Every structure is written in structure tokens, then in C-alpha cells.
Amino acid sequence: MDQRCVQMRKKHQIPQTFEEIKQAAEAGEADSQCYLGICYETGQGVPQDYEAAVKWFRRAADQGNELAQCHLGVCYQIGRGVPEEHGLAAKWFREAAEQGDAAAQFNLGVCYETGQGVPQNYAEAFKWYLAAAEQGEPQAQFNVGVYYETGQVVPQDFAEAVKWYRAAAEQGCAPAQCNLGLCCETGRGVPLNFAEAVKWFCKAAQQGDKTAQHNLGLYYATLESAQAALAEGNAAEKVK
């Protein structure tokens, strides 16, 4: 399953210039504190400084800003600007997830699936993946599809797996595109359709998905073999 942490995508109203952002942040405005943290994290308008980013994320997070809470969780998860600490990462992801933040919900799901910072709990992981998936988070949609395809925690349901793979695939999620191709190729949860399978394998392969590249290679190798056999059969018929 996809276990990468993701940043929040929600956008807040913020001042227009860097100086205005800084002044608002220093005055205690949470959204501006968060955006100032992003500026330091990315080096946008200021020299990149992860410790300064964490400082401003923390100030906003302490005021309940879910975007900052998710960013702060990522900092603790990967050790950016602070020592790596999975327990604190999970804490901040939960703060944001419980406010409905899709990225934090996905990241908290990853924590439960891997047992990083919290006791491993697949049912809890699925709960948070589903919450994020229902808000359109593609990586979460892919993971929900995997749970339904494998029957882990939930009853195995190929049609439901296809539904979530398709939702993620249409947003460009390469692993979901590959798995959707496999479902089309095998007729699991969707009518057998080789052309559709190849379409999704191609989309995933173009993004560097190695499984899709392998499946695409096998498909074309099989097609070439079938065409060669057909040509040999036609030639033999002409000889007769």
C-alpha cells in the first residue's frame, strides 16, 4: 500500500506580501504563522530553514490550525527541523485528522498500518484511510481499494476495490492505475477488457510504475507470440 506522508492541500486566506505575512504571524494570526512556516520549509522568499519552519508550524498548530498540525506531524515523521519522533507525528496528525483534514487522516492511517507512533491496528488504519478517501485523497483511495481487494479488515469485494482504484487512477495515482489495469485484465470486479487494461497500464508505466511496465511488456510479448503463431498457421494453410 501507499505509505508516503502527504502534506495538507487546503488553502487558507493569507496576506499577499511576505512582509504582511510576517507581521500577521508575529501578531499571532494562525494562518499566517502556518504560511510563514511553509515559506521557511520551501525557501520561498527566505533562505530555507527547517527549524524556523517548525517554530512557526508549532505556533499555528498550538492554536488549532489543522494545516500547520499536519505539516508539523510530517516534520516529526521524517525528522525535518526536529528529531524524528513518530509518537509526536501521530499526535499532530490526529489533531488535524479529527478536524477533518484529509492529508492528516491519510498520514494517521499510515501510522496505524505501520505501527509507527501508535500500536499497529489495521482496522484503525482503514478507518482513517476511508475518511481521507471519501474526501478525495487519491493515495487513501488506493489503499482503501487494496483493503477491499485483499479482504483485509473488510469483506473482500472486488467491485468496491475497482471503485476506489478508479477514483484514485483518474487523479493520476500510478499504483491505482496499475491495479485497475490488473482488474480489467482478469475481470475482477469489472468486465474483462484487455484494451482498458492496457490503457491503465500505459498511464501507470508512463509515471515509472515498474509493475505496470512489466505487465505491459508481458502483454505485448504475448501479443507478438500470438501474431507470430497466427502467421505461421496461415503460411502452413497456404502450403496445403
Q: Which terms summarize this structure?
A:
single chain, 240 residues, Serine Threonine Protein Phosphatase 5, Tetratricopeptide repeat, mainly alpha, elongated, 0% strand
Textual characterization of the structure:
This protein is an all-alpha fold and 240 residues long. It has 2 domains: 1-135, Tetratricopeptide repeat domain (Serine Threonine Protein Phosphatase 5, Tetratricopeptide repeat, Alpha Horseshoe); 137-240, Serine Threonine Protein Phosphatase 5, Tetratricopeptide repeat, CATH 1.25.40. It is built from 12 helices and no strands. It has helices at residues 18-26, 30-42, 50-61, 66-78, 86-97, 102-114, 122-133, 138-150, 158-169, 174-186, 194-206, 210-239. Helix 8 packs antiparallel against helix 9 (158-169). The longest helix has 30 residues, at 210-239. The N and C termini lie far apart (55 Å).
**Percent of residues in beta strands:** under 5%
Structural class estimated from helices and strands: mainly alpha
Low-confidence stretches: none
Q: Give the full name of the CATH homologous superfamily of the largest domain.
A: Tetratricopeptide repeat domain
Overall domain count: 2
What pattern of helices and strands is seen along the backbone? HHHHHHHHHHHH
Globally, the shape reads: elongated
Percent helix among the residues? Answer: 55-70%
Helix count from the secondary structure assignment: 12
CATH class designation of the largest domain:
Mainly Alpha
- Rounded to the nearest angstrom, the radius of gyration is 23 Å
Count of β-strands: 0
Could you tell me the mean pLDDT?
A: 90
CATH topology of the largest domain: Serine Threonine Protein Phosphatase 5, Tetratricopeptide repeat
CATH architecture annotation name of the largest domain: Alpha Horseshoe
Q: Quaternary arrangement of the chains shown?
A: single chain
The N- to C-terminal Cα distance equals 55 Å
**Main beta sheet strand tally, sense and closure:** none
